[in-house]
Amino acid sequence: MERLFIVCTFDCSFEYYEETIEKFVKEYGDGVVIDYDLNKINDHKSHSFYNVTSLEAFAKILDNPFAREWDKANNCKDIVYKLDGPL
Questions:
Q1: Structural contact between residues 7 and 47, judged by C-beta atoms closer than 8 angstroms
Q2: In terms of Cα–Cα distance, which of 38, 28, 39 is closest to 64?
Q3: pLDDT, tens digit, for every residue of 2-25?
Q4: 17-26 long-range contacts, Cβ below 8 Å, gap at least 24?
Q5: Helices 65-73 and 14-28, packing angle to 10 deg
Q6: Are 9 and 45 in contact (CB under 8 A)?
Q7: Considering the entire predicted model, what is its pTM?
Q8: Which of 32, 46, 51, 69 is the most exposed place for a label (fewest CB within 10 A)?
Q9: Is residue 72 within 8 Å of 12, Cβ to Cβ?
């Protein structure tokens, strides 16, 4: 299992971003995303923690056509950090 911390900025509302992430994880994350915790920083920024089965598999779902188009339409930028150490 890999642990990730993601800082995300976007132009849409936080509520729309949160709804999209929930749908995205359900549709594309099966077998990859074990769990996640999404935290609102402000209306256009979030911090999230993900437990994933594989960095490579997670990178693939982030680079699918839906994700690329959604990111472009909402000016979404992610900074992904791999966390080390105990859970």
A1: yes
A2: 28
A3: 999 999 999 999 999 999 999 999
A4: 17/46, 17/74, 17/76, 18/46, 20/70, 21/48, 24/61, 24/66, 24/67
A5: 180
A6: yes
A7: 0.91
A8: 69
A9: no
Give 38-84 pLDDT, tens digit per residue.
999 999 999 999 999 999 999 999 999 999 999 999 999 999 999 98
What are 44's two structure tokens? 């256009």
Q: Which two tokens stand for residue 83?
A: 């966390």
Tokens representing 69 are: 């188009």
According to DSSP, the residues that pair with 40 across neighbouring strands are 46
**Residues in the chain, total:** 87
**Lookup result for tokens 């994700």:** 67
Instruction: For the chain, list the domains and their CATH numbers.
Output: 2-82 (3.30.70.100)
